[in-house]
Specification:
mainly alpha, two-stranded antiparallel ribbon, about 190 residues, about 5% strand
Amino acid sequence: MHTKPKQHLLYEYTGDVMKILFLLLAVTFTSSLAGTPLRKTDQPFIDAAPYTFVLGQQQSSSVQSDELQKPLAPKNRGKAMFMSLLVPGLGQRYAEANGKAAAFFGVEIGLWLTFSGLTAYGNWRENDYETLAAAHADVNLDGKNHTYFINVGNFDSIYDYNEYRLRQRDWANYYQDVDFWYWNWSSRA
C-alpha cells in the first residue's frame, strides 16, 4: 500500500510569495513617484572642514574648488526609482551615491551568476534523474513531461500510481496507456 505522494512546497507557495513581492514593489514604486527631490538643493554645498591637516598641524585652506560651491541639481525620486528598476544601481548612480550604486550593481551581477549556476545545476540533476529512471525503472524518455517524472519518483510502479488515482477518484490523471507511460523500479532504493 502506498501513501500520498510528497507535496512540493516550492510549487505550493510560489504564487503567494510572488503576489506579496509584487504588492511591495508596487507600493514602493507609487510612493516614490511623488516627485520630491532626493536632497535639498536650496543651499549650496558648503565644505564642513575648511582646514586641512598636514602631519598633525592645522593649516587654513583658503582655496575652495568651484565644484564645491555650486548648488546641487535637484534629483527626482520617481526617475531614480525607474532607473533602478531598469538596472539596479543606476538610480543610485543618478543620485550620485556611487558607493551604493557599485554595491547594488555588484549584488545584481552576483544574483544573476548564482541564478545561472543553479539553473545549469538543476538541468544537470534533471538529466541525471531521467537517466536513472530509464536505467532502473524501464522508462521510455520520449514524450514525457516533468509531472510524469515526479510521479515516477513518488511511486514504485505505474500500477501503484494508477491504484492510488483510482482510490482518489482522480480519473483525469490516471494513465490509461500503460505501455507508453510504463515504469517499474527494480528496487525500493
